[in-house]
Design goal:
With 117 residues, the protein is an all-alpha fold. The protein has four helices and no strands.
Length: 117
């Protein structure tokens, strides 16, 4: 095995040993992070658009904070609400991958025991 393959196998084994709850927690954090990034971009675009519109239509640029806040908070709220919508699929995939990893380890251990006899 190469160094990269060995390292990947160790990381995968460590994740499998940590359990499905830890895996789902990481998936949820990644999901929230993705929506937070979307919220930042949408807030910046709507806020900037409102500032430009304020010059054209004569209202105060401070009102740009409203669409900024709505874009940011709305996107993050969607991330929070939907973070566990695919838990069943993620848990099934986790069990499938970790089941095959554990089966491979058991085969490797049984192969090693046969050589010692």
């Amino acid at each position: 095995m190469t160094m990269t393959t060995t390292r990947s196998a160790e990381v995968l084994r460590t994740q499998c040993e940590a359990g499905v709850a830890t895996y789902l927690s990481q998936v949820h954090a990644d999901h929230r992070s993705r929506y937070l990034k979307i919220g930042i971009v949408s807030a910046a675009l709507t806020g900037f658009g409102t500032i430009l519109a304020s010059r054209q239509f004569g209202f105060t640029p401070a009102l740009a904070g409203i669409p900024f806040a709505v874009g940011f908070l709305g996107s993050y709220a969607v991330g929070l609400i939907t973070q566990d919508s695919d838990d069943h699929n993620h848990a099934s995939a986790f069990e499938e991958v970790c089941g095959s990893v554990m089966d491979d380890e058991e085969e490797d251990e049984s192969d090693g025991q046969g050589d010692a006899e």
